[in-house]
Known about the structure:
By secondary structure, chain A is mainly α. Chain A is 69% helix and 0% strand.
Amino acid sequence: MATDVQRLERSWAEPAGLLAWIGTVDHKRIGTRYLVTAAVFFAAAGVEASLMRAQLARPDEHLLGPERYDQVFSMHGLTMIFLFVTPMLSGFGNYLVPLMIGARDMAFPRLNAFGYWVFLAAGLFMYSGLLLGKAPDNGWFNYAPLSIQPYSDGPNIDFYAIGLLFLGISTTVGGVNFIVTILKLRAPGMSINRMPIFCWAILATSISIVFAIPSLSVAAGMLELQRSWGFHFFDTAGGGDPLLWQHLFWIFGHPDVYIIFLPAVGIVSSIVPVFSRRSLVAYDWVALATMATALLGFGVWVHHMFAVGLPQVSLAFFAAASTIIAIPSGIQVFAWLATMLKGRPVIRTPFLYVLGFLVSFVIGGLSGVMFAAVPFDQQVTDSYFVVAHFHYVLFGGAVFPIFAGIHYWYPKITGRMLDERLGQASFWLVFVGFNLTFFPMHIAGLLGMPRRVYTYPAGMGWDVYNLLSSIGAVVLVVGILMNLANLVQARFLGESAGPDPWLANTPYPRPPTTRYAAMVKNPRVAP
Amino acid sequence: MRRRISGFGPALGRRTPLAIGAVLLLTLVAAGCGENDQSTLAPKSSASDQIARLWWVMLVASAVIFGVVLVLLFVAVLRRRGAEPATTKGGGLWIPAIGGIAIPVVVLTALFALTLRTLPKTSPAAASATGLTIDVVGRQWFWDVSYPDKDVRTANELHIPVGVPVNVEVSSADVVHSFWVPELNRKIDMIPGQVNRVTLEADRAGVYRGQCAEFCGLQHAHMAFYVVAEPRAAFDAWLAREAKPAPAPATPELERGQQVLLGSACVYCHTIDGTNASGKIGPDLTHLASRRSLAAGLIPNSPGYLAGWILDPQHVKPGNKMPATDLSGTDLQALLAYLESLK
């Protein structure tokens, strides 16, 4: 006599065969696909970062010429933001949200699969430019009029504009899918104020996506119209305005920072209670802070443009908005601290990565608040101080949580445990390497080193900090490779995870390949 | 019973982040005191001084906040650890209420007030309140500098009198650049079709390096310039000298050098006041020999470097707009001699 679960498994089983494998609409398979594809792009971005650090290790280095260096730094930024962090977090969302809310799958499974394939195609399209030696070479925010003829004659920027248009489609359908899934498909009894905090994060991010991406798509579309069909949106000679690009880009660009950051803190809010052995303190506040961040994120874009010559009254307004946005982040940081203080923390690799996140993110948050002080922003913007700041926020604030999430959910996805000692050793290498790479950049920036220079003269006081950064990068790369080794070995040699490897006191449906509703007992602690 | 926390491993590991932070903070302070050509922490004007003070205040406040968070984190992780789940539910709300709302509201309000107080001191003064106006146009990849009152045009070098607020009006002839002399003031973007202003007022005589801060293409890294602040008399003498046309060739060799220049493609891009060379695309060469550097701060202005630049500028600064010039040895010698005479 088959149980309900066995009957469900049978009727929902995936058909076998290559075509079925390609055509799958299963949210867990698509989620895993996002995770693996994003990891491959992460490796590419890592190679690009290593090339930059090799070039900048010494003054007046000739390893890469300006043409190569510009493509490498542009592809590094584009890859990390558009092809690694966003899809990686989308992968976690795809895999986990339906399980967490007790849904059979995403609301629109085919649209979900469509989103993945468009993302893959757009990523490969952008990288095909690199194979031709004609990759985007104007940075990830690609200011006009450097992005248009006659200053960019080659196809480089077309790879950028068209690639982003398609990525925009992929991200938007993903966002819509998450919103509908979370709002309409929650299991009976799971009111929205009992939903796992990770789902709040994905909901907030998805709402941001739906409102922010149109601005990017419009900008990329106008750019391609100007480049290929002779429109005049961004050139003064034709009556256009270069600042139009900056506004359109940053109206998307700043919310995008939170599109990256919010799911990452959703992971943190999932992991902190489990390893603190108690429920999250101030669940309601954290959920509200998540939504508030997404909302306020739309009102601060001009702090990327404080040096373009705006009137003081605009500067003051956006300075105030940029100051206020620190508060929701503060609430979350102290809610996590309170959870740990009130709990009985157990240190395991996922939690170590969360602690590494907290330390890095607090530094990045504090240097971020400094940019709301307009005169200081105008002094250090576009210097290495900014490079240091946003790596603390994006690497510290998103990549550390991603590593935490990978360690935390690897047993759930594969059924096997990662090696704990290897995991902890890799954490310390990543943590030390990260700080050694990016902390000195604060100082190089304060000493006047502009960002996006392919080389710099000796005798400016920048040499030692750049050398330290390059040494740190080596340590960081070793740490990341150690993580990779751990992931690979555990796939074949790892211990069996069992039903509840972290003693999480959460519903933990063990069989990873079948899809059935999670039996949600305690929604406030994540699966 | 106290168990060793596996995650914190050897004692070294426990102190590593603190030690790194302390060492880096010390080097930062040392860097602030040292002499660097382009440091935001070595202000030579009241505007940059205001910004540096703002930085030090924010740094101290941040260090305190970071220290508190770090202590809380260590206390949380090292205290009461264990595998038994905590039985307590609820409670602890006061921690985010104080740490996440009350303290930030106070600190951020103070920061905003400080920002509003500093802002006017780094904002451009009214043109009428300044003693001199200089126009700077950014071009890929050099700085086209002119003094509109005196009909003076030069490149990659601004001379200003000490103690006088100077109104710098910046724009761009091609892509977005950014005008930045960290020791004298904040940066200001140079945007095509728009004139932005920044006030420079040096406290003391000296040479201050500036550099383009907005990515502007292949040679963004090599778009530097110098601001030479000198006493009023020296500045006036410099300006009077620059306002004169180029000296006429005084010897047959200089004569020949001038002919080489006027007979070559140089004239399409460069101006030498007093001759037929009147191109506007490249830097003005009327008083080339009086300048400190060539190729926007990239190489020193000496005959050897100048010769290398003329023969193969693409080797020195790949991607720049100047083509190579093929000259015989004697023509090159004459041209160099002529250019060196343009004091």
